[in-house]
Design a protein that fits this description.
Layout lengths: L16 H12 L5 H13 L1 H16 L12 H15 L17 H35 L11 H25 L10
Helix pairs in contact: 1-2, 1-3, 2-3
Length: about 190
């Protein structure tokens, strides 16, 4: 719409919103002349709706990065022309795929390959089984033959010994308290 903007821009320009929205992509691609670009920017400053569309398209354009055109190898056109000529000389079969002719007898080494592959996989399987058995045998050899059981629990004996030491220490402390002038025994 020309003149007053419904979005509250207030400023009249010679561009309407429809024309602006049509020209946003050309402006982002750098295809507008300077005078058109100035008018577009003036409208974008005064119209929040068109400005929002412009910003959205500018963000979208950042996702599409231009790529270089791949280089065509030398002689590519000549090879395509030669293939087209050969195809035309053989006759058009309407796009039908024709299987390649088969040889009467496969080469000798083609028969030997499945046998070699079967032998190799069998050999690898046997080697893996042998390694598994060897590792199990070694693991069994390192295990004790019978579980080691403690014949006597040393904890009660150790507690009893600690009680004896505590009683002896209390007795020595009581004796020192009764006879303070006696020489003090050295502690170990």
């Amino acid at each position: 719409m020309k003149g007053e903007h419904p979005n509250g821009g207030g400023e009249a320009t010679s561009w309407d919103c429809g024309r602006t929205r049509a020209q946003v992509a050309r402006h982002l691609d750098g295809e507008l002349g300077e005078s058109e670009a100035v008018q577009l920017r003036g409208h974008l400053l005064s119209c929040p709706g068109c400005r929002a569309q412009f910003q959205g398209e500018r963000l979208l354009k950042r996702w599409f990065v231009p790529v270089e055109t791949p280089a065509v190898p030398d002689g590519f056109a000549a090879r395509v022309a030669a293939l087209a000529t050969v195809s035309a000389a053989m006759g058009d079969r309407g796009g039908e795929l024709v299987p390649a002719p088969r040889a009467e007898r496969p080469p000798a080494n083609a028969l030997e390959m499945p046998r070699l592959l079967q032998f190799t996989t069998t050999l690898v399987g046997l080697a893996a089984a042998a390694l598994l058995l060897l590792s199990l045998a070694l693991a069994m050899d390192n295990r004790p033959s019978r579980p080691t059981v403690l014949l006597a629990d040393p904890l009660p004996e150790a507690l009893e010994r600690l009680d004896e030491l505590n009683r002896a220490e209390r007795a020595a402390a009581a004796e020192r308290a009764q006879n303070p002038t006696a020489p003090q025994p050295e502690r170990p």
